[in-house]
Amino acid sequence: AGAFLSVRDLHVSFSTEDGVVRAVDGLSFDLERGRTLGIVGESGSGKSVTNLTVLGLHNPMFTTVEGEILLEGQELTTAREAELEKLRGNKVAMIFQDPLTALSPYYTVGRQIAEPYMKHRGASRKAAWERTVEMLGKVGIPNPRERAKDYPHQFSGGMRQRAMIAMALVCDPDLLIADEPTTALDVTVQAQILDLLKDLQREFGTGIIFITHDLGVIADMADDIMVMYAGGAVERGTTEQVLRSPSHPYTWGLLNSMPRLDSDLGTPLAPIPGTPPSLLSPPSGCRFHPRCAFRERVAGDRCVTERPRTAPDRASACHLTAEQKRTVFLEEIRPRL
Ligand code: SF4
Ligand code: MG
């Protein structure tokens, strides 16, 4: 038994000239096929590192990975490069904010979509080209048979994003990791791309990990949400739970700093005071404690001395009691949102 993707007590650290950076520090989560897990957090929270590690894209020379990453029972943390090579672009694919990190300027768009299909599926050139044209059509590129012969620079930004999605999905991956895939696009194109991903997920049953700092996008895309801070998960639950009854002070801060749809233009946002900590020397106890307005409500100095953890199910890693979390949210946070 077990989820399609299961990450257990993952630790990822890098050696740098200044010391060891603990980029991911004890992270566990599951993803089921056909579902979307939204990972949200500020930059430096470890959300991208987690996913590069899932793909085996970390540099083994400078990176230490501990814990388990099980994809359909296959352990990825100890997989050989050749095995990972077989997974990437095949069972597992990734789309990025900037399609030019995935698309080479030197080859036609069509060739770059056809090649992984030939490589992983052993398809003939002709069959791969037909598949490419089909995929470009599915992602909404008009006149795909002709446009497949274009180079990436002949495509608009939104079209390149679509082409990258076609490339990621050409082998019908079971897992798609989307790292801020629409951040650089204007709102209309962004909405189109998100709809496209949802349609493709329905069609192919892909499990998606969607990484973003945008709670609006998460609300639209994710079935489940994991909020990350300083290398760990601080809150986890269904999208409904996390957005409607969040129970971690950091999540409250994120929600409070979100622009409100119904507010007058110019209503100032309330950013969380302070900045995320350096992962070279993270704060003791709860890593959020230097920025947290609620630590006085926890008895003693537990917030400073004891690291709170999430349980595997719905949880927030915070020493406040369940009752405190509920009442503080209802009485002090929600009225401000
Ligand atoms: Fe704030 Fe303490 Fe909860 Fe951390 S454990 S979020 S410092 S109240
Ligand atoms: Mg990132």
From TrEMBL:
InterPro entries: AAA+_ATPase, ABC_Ni/Peptide_Import, ABC_transporter-like_ATP-bd, ABC_transporter-like_CS, Oligopep_ABC_C, P-loop_NTPase
Subcellular compartments: Cell membrane
Gene3D superfamilies from the UniProt entry: P-loop containing nucleotide triphosphate hydrolases
Pfam families reported in the protein's UniProt record: ABC_tran, oligo_HPY
Topological relation to the membrane, as annotated: Peripheral membrane protein
Main localization (coarse): membrane
Molecular-function GO terms, alphabetical: ATP binding
Occurrences of domain ABC transporter (ranges): 7-255
Keywords: ATP-binding, Cell membrane, Membrane, Nucleotide-binding, Transport
Keyword Manganese carried by entry: no
CDD domains to which the protein is assigned, alphabetical: ABC_NikE_OppD_transporters
Family: Belongs to the ABC transporter superfamily.
Descriptive protein name: Peptide ABC transporter ATP-binding protein
Species of the source: Streptomyces asoensis
